[in-house]
Amino acid sequence: MVLRSALVKMRVYYAAVEQVVAATDKREVWGAVCLVDYNPRDREGYICGYKDMSVPMGPCECDCPDAILDLLSPTDHDHQYAEEWRARCRDNAAERRTRCAKPTPRAGQTIIFDTPLSFSNGQRLDRFDVAANPRNHRTVLYRPHGSSGLYRISNVKHKHYQLL
């Protein structure tokens, strides 16, 4: 029985699965990971595919939510891959929490990156004024301090910065 599950980024399905061994009535909760591929426009009609695996297989995908990890039974020392996978998932969850706690740049603020960013025009810049995006109110653009050009900076919360 699936106790808890999550579909992360529409690409990976994680589940805590409860299993009771009939001979011993011992309850065990193990982790399942399924890579999911959804392509509704596939010409051949294969719109959905998946690859399932269990945690002892040591899957590369390691964005399992803490709520699922907390439900899993302790691993045996025989399952080194499972222990390593759980540790990677916990590390990634901690990193996500840190990123979410970072303040989001808002229009009118100044952002200073710890290391200069390189752009395709050859410039390396580290100080920007945050400007409102006239085409999309959910995003902001970045203007180099003292300049009139505008830049997009993707995954800004993955970078180290200070806001003024």
Question: Could you characterize the architecture of this molecule?
Answer:
By secondary structure, the chain is α+β, with helices and mostly antiparallel strands. It folds into 2 domains: 2-101, no CATH class; 110-163, no CATH class. The chain is 16% helix and 38% strand. The protein has helices at residues 66-69, 80-101, and strands at residues 2-8, 12-21, 26-38, 48-54, 110-118, 124-132, 140-144, 161-163. The chain has a 4-stranded antiparallel β-sheet. Strands 7-6-5-8 form a 4-stranded antiparallel β-sheet, with no helix packed on it. A hairpin with a 4-residue loop joins strand 2 (12-21) and strand 3 (26-38). The mean pLDDT is 88.
- Biggest beta sheet summary: 4 strands, antiparallel
Strand proportion, as a percent range, falls in 35-45%
User: What count of domains describes the coordinates?
Assistant: 2
The pLDDT mean sits at: 88
Order of helices and strands: EEEEHHEEEE
Strand order of the largest sheet: 1-2-3-4
- What separation lies between the terminal Cα atoms? 51 Å
Low-confidence stretches: none
Q: Give helix % range.
A: 10-25%
Per the principal axes of the C-alpha atoms, what is the gross shape? elongated
| Rg calc | 22 Å
User: Structural class, judged by helices and strands?
Assistant: alpha+beta
Q: What is the count of β-strands?
A: 8
Topology:
Layout: E1 2-8, E2 12-21, E3 26-38, E4 48-54, H1 66-69, H2 80-101, E5 110-118, E6 124-132, E7 140-144, E8 161-163
Antiparallel strand pairs: 1-2, 2-3, 3-4, 5-6, 5-8, 6-7
